[in-house]
Recover the amino acids of this structure.
């Protein structure tokens, strides 16, 4: 055990931890932008700088490891000033997109401006030519729009793609002197959208749903992903009676905040107009719309006939992974107990 | 007249309002009459209740301003001002000098407009039709000025938290100058028509008398209180917006009857004009809005031009800001009396409780007392003289 002092508080801690880890574990707040807990420190944004005795310059707390007897200060006037300056540089070429940006009100950059204080000094930095909206550019998958002008080059997406997903599609680089992210190896992309989920600003936005909503207009409903057997936890973002986005909860197993392409982008079927909403009976070459009573009577009569003539094994039941668990349970129960067959299958490999 | 058993009761119960032109809105008076004499008079209110106080708890501090416009809709600038002062007191906002002077100009213009509306309609109640046209002619000029600076005539929402929404223009100042120069002559015209008019004097003198003691006991404020001879004005007693820097007299009455209330209001218009002349003489330069992060709105040209202001504007408009915890009460001298806002803040962007102290409600409460035993015709004079607006009584 070693002892460090943060803002005058003496803290006992294990060696090998970073300053940020120790501070967070002890309820001391240090602002961050690029930091993600389960990844290696990125150290791109420099907002988490702290003053450490013995160092000439402030140190990034997400990278710097604690040593015995370290004396750390997290909120001095100088640090606040430096953080504001960093923010000013981030905002210097940020377009005036808040009213049309998907991320507004959930945006980390907005929160930092709120938190670090709106200051004349910040404002003066960017008075002049307003940065106007620019259209998105091509990303490695069609489910995501990339707005380079909104990008703060925090490199969360690059690191998450490399470390969490293991694909390494993205690379940080420069275009006309401005840092931005390039999908350098699009052939490796599995379209999982992890980059989208970690983007702190509106640079990466979801391009599947035509309908968008602000956070106070939508409700989040926690449920289980209807696709494969892993059973990831997903949150359906619902606005105006439609699912507009799928997010997940970082704290909950089995997926701990990650999703695959199906879970994240495969929700269009819910509002698809191709879904059957009324029973149909095939007559000749075409379908005829009938009432539920007629359809059920028809099915019951035919099933009975087949069972009597050929036995229960002549019947098989196919259900859908898009139905609820309860529906599917009742369905297999019906097939086994009423019809008397084990021929039950399901499209769960989708 | 009703007959109960062998007893003949002479009392008649009569509903006056809520659809009665002289009850100024939707007030219902339940009158117990014996012949022409009002034995008992019960005001029944609530026909214009919109739940403004409750609505206030579900709107952000910024959004509530538009509700204040609709309280006493003849004095919306003053309502804005009272609310803005309360929120500023809560957040500890220092308003720039230029905004304070503009606020005084707006409040006094609104006071004149409100009194003109009262005078015109009151004269109409009593039967003097021509005054109405003259009063509305001048009121129209004030509303035009409001439209010039805020785009709205009746509900400007112009005074907002931290200052005023837009700067005044040269065009406005010119219109104001012309108005101030000519207005006293117009007031003289109204007085020529009314003050010594025998019918007017007969109808108003010694009607609905409220002594100074009773006026205080009933809690009345504004011209009703001052007409009873109590020299009390919030602009003098607890100055706000720099009213201590202006010279003006507080007119008071001697008897506390309808005629005194008329005289007090007419004189108040002259005094307001006097304040206007002083205020417009020396309007300091500078900003019109305090710059308090995430409480006062940034100027529109900055919002359109830099991202920090845009973020700030977005956060405020979306209600994603915090104000200090606490509770404040702040009141000002509205044209009709004291308008106060009591705001309890739990630190969120919406008030936990927003109580509105209305002078109209209190003054109306004193009406049954002062019309005890008067004639029905005098009741009209009495009701008009206390100058109520049901938008504020019912809230």
């Amino acid at each position: 055990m070693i002892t460090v002092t943060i803002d005058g508080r003496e803290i006992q801690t294990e060696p090998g931890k970073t300053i940020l880890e120790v501070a967070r574990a002890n309820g001391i707040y240090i602002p961050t932008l690029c930091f993600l807990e389960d990844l290696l420190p990125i150290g791109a944004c420099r907002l988490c700088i702290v003053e450490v005795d013995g160092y000439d310059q402030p140190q990034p707390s997400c990278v710097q490891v604690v040593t015995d007897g370290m004396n750390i200060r997290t909120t001095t006037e100088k640090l606040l000033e430096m953080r504001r300056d960093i923010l000013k540089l981030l905002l210097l070429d940020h377009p005036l997109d808040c009213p049309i940006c998907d991320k507004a009100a959930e945006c980390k950059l907005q929160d930092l401006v709120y938190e670090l204080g709106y200051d004349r000094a910040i404002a003066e930095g960017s008075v002049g030519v307003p940065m106007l909206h620019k259209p998105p550019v091509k990303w490695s998958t069609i489910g995501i729009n990339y707005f380079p002008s909104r990008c703060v080059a925090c490199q969360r997406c690059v690191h998450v793609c490399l470390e969490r997903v293991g694909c390494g599609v993205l690379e940080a680089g420069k275009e006309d002197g401005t840092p931005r992210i390039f999908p350098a190896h699009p052939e490796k992309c599995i379209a999982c959208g992890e980059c989208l989920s970690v983007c702190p600003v509106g640079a990466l936005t979801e391009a599947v749903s035509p309908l968008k909503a602000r956070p106070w207009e939508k409700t989040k409903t926690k449920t289980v992903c209807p696709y494969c057997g892993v059973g990831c936890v997903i949150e359906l973002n619902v606005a105006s009676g439609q699912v507009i986005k799928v997010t997940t909860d970082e704290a909950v197993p089995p997926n701990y905040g990650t999703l695959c392409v199906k879970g994240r982008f495969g929700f269009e079927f819910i509002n698809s107009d191709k879904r059957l909403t009324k029973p149909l009976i095939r007559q000749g070459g075409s379908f005829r719309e009938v009432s539920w009573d007629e359809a059920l009577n028809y099915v019951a009569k035919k099933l009975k006939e087949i069972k009597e003539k050929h036995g229960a094994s002549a019947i098989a039941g196919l259900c859908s992974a898009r139905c609820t668990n309860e529906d599917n349970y009742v369905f297999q129960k019906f097939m086994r107990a009423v019809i008397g067959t084990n021929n039950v299958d399901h499209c769960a490999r989708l | 007249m009703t007959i109960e058993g062998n007893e003949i009761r002479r009392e008649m119960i009569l509903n006056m309002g809520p659809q009665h032109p002289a009850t100024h809105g939707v007030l219902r008076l339940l009158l117990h009459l014996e012949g022409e004499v009002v034995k008992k008079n019960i005001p029944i209110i609530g026909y214009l209740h919109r739940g403004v106080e409750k609505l206030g708890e579900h709107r952000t501090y910024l959004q509530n301003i538009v509700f204040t416009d609709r309280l006493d809709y003849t004095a919306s600038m003053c309502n804005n001002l009272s609310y803005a002062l309360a929120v500023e007191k809560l957040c500890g906002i220092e308003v720039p000098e230029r905004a304070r002077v503009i606020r005084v100009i707006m409040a006094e213009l609104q006071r004149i407009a409100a009194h003109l509306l009262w005078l015109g309609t009151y004269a109409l109640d009593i039967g003097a039709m021509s005054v109405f046209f003259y009063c509305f002619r001048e009121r129209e000029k004030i509303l035009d000025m409001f439209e010039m600076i805020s785009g709205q005539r009746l509900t400007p929402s112009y005074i907002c938290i931290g200052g005023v929404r837009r700067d005044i223009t040269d065009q406005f100042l010119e219109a104001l100058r012309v108005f101030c120069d000519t207005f006293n002559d117009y007031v003289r015209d109204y007085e020529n028509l009314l003050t010594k008019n025998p019918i007017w004097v007969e109808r108003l003198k010694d009607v609905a008398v409220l002594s100074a003691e009773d006026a205080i006991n009933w809690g009345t404020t504004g011209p009703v209180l001052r007409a009873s001879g109590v020299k009390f004005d919030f602009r003098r007693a607890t100055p706000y917006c720099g009213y201590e820097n202006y010279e003006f007299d507080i007119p008071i009455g001697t008897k506390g009857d309808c005629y005194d209330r008329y005289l007090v209001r007419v004189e108040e218009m002259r005094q307001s004009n006097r304040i206007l002349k002083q205020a417009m003489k020396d309007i300091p330069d500078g900003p019109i809005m305090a710059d308090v992060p995430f409480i006062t709105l940034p100027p529109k040209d900055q919002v359109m031009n830099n991202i920090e202001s845009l973020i700030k504007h977005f956060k405020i408009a979306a209600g994603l800001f915090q104000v200090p915890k606490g509770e404040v009460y702040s009141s000002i001298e509205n044209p009709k009396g004291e308008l106060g806002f009591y705001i309890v803040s739990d630190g969120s962007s919406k008030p936990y409780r927003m109580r509105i102290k209305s002078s109209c409600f209190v003054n109306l409460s004193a009406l049954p007392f002062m019309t005890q035993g008067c004639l029905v015709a005098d009741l009209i004079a009495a009701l008009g003289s206390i100058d109520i607006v049901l938008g504020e009584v019912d809230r």
Summary: Residues 52-394 of chain B form a domain with the Cytochrome-c3 Hydrogenase; chain B fold (CATH 1.10.645.10). The two ends of chain B are 37 Å apart (CA to CA).
